[in-house]
Design goal:
This is FMN-dependent NADH-azoreductase. The chain has 61 residues and is mostly helical. The chain is built from 2 helices and no strands.
Length: 61
């Protein structure tokens, strides 16, 4: 369970943040293939988030 994300979303409004993106690595407590697959999934999601951020930056300029 992610306890940090809701808090970050709450304070983000005070910091002027309009959008948040979550990349998660799960199953750390098991340290098995589920954890390794979760790491790979998170790394693969990074380019999509970067693309969204750069597109938003270009459109707001």
């Amino acid at each position: 369970m992610n306890h940090l994300a809701p808090h970050l979303q709450t304070i983000s409004k005070y910091l002027g943040v309009d959008e948040t993106y979550k990349l998660r690595v799960e199953y750390q407590e098991f340290g098995d293939t589920r954890h390794k697959e979760s790491i790979e999934k998170a790394y693969k999601a990074i380019p999509r988030v970067i693309n969204k951020l750069s597109t938003n930056l270009i459109m707001s300029a």
